[in-house]
Write a structure and sequence with these properties.
Layout: H1 13-23, E1 28-30, H2 32-45, E2 50-55, H3 67-78, E3 82-87, H4 109-123, E4 132-136, H5 138-153, H6 158-161, H7 165-172, H8 179-195, E5 199-203, H9 207-219, E6 226-230, H10 256-264, H11 268-278, H12 283-294, H13 299-314, H14 317-332, E7 341-344, E8 349-350, H15 351-357, H16 364-372, E9 376-378, E10 381-382, E11 389-390, E12 393-399, E13 403-409
Parallel strand pairs: 2-3, 2-5, 3-4, 5-6, 7-13
Antiparallel strand pairs: 1-6, 8-11, 9-10, 9-12, 12-13
């Protein structure tokens, strides 16, 4: 029998506050009424809710786009709930087909082990490690064996599986779908059964897998989890989701000066979405800051505050202060107070391409001529090497006596 949620617990102000924290920046909370009931029961009984986030260690490092769901976990952790950071060492062997138009090559156990070693250490920069339960889904997935896997597969139909967009699109296009890919959402869903999860978090691209957990818990007679999806974070370009392949990302292990400068390079519009999804400031504080900017305060002040908060989270407050001072020093040395700010991508970027992209030279050949004539300076130093390449960061570039630009390369 499926367990039913008890509904006779009062919805107190603290419960309403916890709901508001849950909803901040989220895409969907399904079903919201059930989550309110769970929060009310937890408040009345003092029993923390079990909140699960699973990440497959498919790469050795994570970027700040990955921390959107981690931030939500931390907010719920700070309310006193039990968060479970689940490393998908077993599911990585299958390969997540979410959003894929082709079969994802599964990782080897050796690759998974190497990647998993850094995942929790990096996640601990956001979560409180002393209050985080870390688990590996091989704990219960491997003991299932062939018999258990067949029994699990009997809990879901092929017709329901083919409702999933990426499977459906690939089937219609005649693109191969391997049978083992059907096992991925089943195994992720079974994680929720094994952990008796009350809430599972994920990106919007994980909705099908998250709903699978809810379905399987009902199949196994458990109270079904709620699911909370978070939007995918746009990268530095403000267009595509943050991705290393798009080179529009900030790695959480990047050095402080680069991290600080990259945050400052985002648009004033994107800044407010980043505040909602990445900042630990309250929504009231963010709204007050936005009101000040709307009232005439320089939006750069708000962006500097965000850059310092993010840099301090992944390094230290002292490193964030030093990064701010480094940026000021670069920006002010022998330079007019008002110069254009330009953002370009493609780091490491050749000096000729940079001059052209920044509008400081009309062509590559003219850029070469200017360099050969000693008329180009970067951060007050004369550039003599036509092959110079600049790494990601912010630089004051000068051509001749009067042309300046503050160029941020990502």
């Amino acid at each position: 029998m499926n367990q039913e949620l008890v509904t006779n617990f009062p919805v107190t102000d603290r419960v309403k506050m916890a709901l508001a924290v849950s909803l901040r920046g989220c895409e969907e909370l399904i079903p919201q009424d059930d989550w309110v009931k769970k929060l009310a029961r937890s408040e009345a009984t003092g029993v923390p809710l079990r909140i699960k986030l699973g990440l497959d260690p498919t790469a050795p490092d994570i970027h700040i786009g990955h921390t959107v769901v981690l931030n939500k976990m931390r907010q719920l952790q700070d309310l006193g709930h039990q968060v479970i950071f689940l490393i998908g060492d077993f599911t990585s062997l299958i390969g997540d087909p979410s959003g894929r138009n082709a079969t994802r090559p599964p990782l080897t156990p050796e690759q998974i082990k190497v990647n998993a070693e850094t995942y929790y250490r990096q996640a601990s920069l956001v979560l409180d490690p002393a209050k985080t339960e870390i688990r590996y889904n091989s704990e219960w997935s491997e003991p299932l064996g062939a018999t258990g896997m067949i029994q699990l597969a009997s809990r879901y139909t092929v017709a329901r599986m083919m409702e999933r967009n990426d499977f459906n699109d690939r089937f219609k296009a005649g693109t191969p779908i391997s049978v083992h890919e059907f096992l991925y959402p089943l195994m992720q869903g079974y994680d929720s059964v094994a952990l008796k999860s009350d809430l599972e978090l994920g990106g919007t691209d994980q909705k099908f897998n998250l709903l699978m957990g809810r379905h399987l818990q009902q199949e196994y007679g458990q109270e079904p989890q709620c699911i909370l999806t978070m939007p995918l974070l746009e990268g530095l370009d403000g267009v595509d989701k943050m991705s290393k392949s798009k080179n529009n990302y900030i790695g959480i292990s990047e050095e402080p000066n680069t991290m600080f400068a990259k945050v400052l390079s985002i648009s004033d519009v994107l800044m407010w979405k980043w505040y909602t999804l990445l900042s630990f400031k309250s929504e009231a504080d963010i709204a007050a800051l936005k009101a000040e900017v709307d009232g005439g305060r320089n939006p750069k002040d708000a962006k500097v505050a965000l850059a310092k908060e993010i840099t301090a989270r992944f390094h230290s407050a002292a490193a964030a202060d030093a990064a701010e001072q480094d940026f000021i020093n670069r920006s002010k040395g022998g330079v007019p107070d008002e110069i254009p700010d330009v953002s370009v991508s493609g780091a490491p970027l050749g000096i000729g391409a940079l001059l052209k992209a920044a509008g400081l030279a009309p062509s590559g050949s003219e850029a070469t001529r200017l360099i050969e004539g000693g008329g180009v300076r970067v951060d007050s130093s004369v550039v003599s090497d036509k092959a110079l390449k600049l790494n990601a960061g912010t630089y004051v570039v000068q051509v001749g006596k009067r042309k300046f630009a503050r160029v941020t390369i990502s």
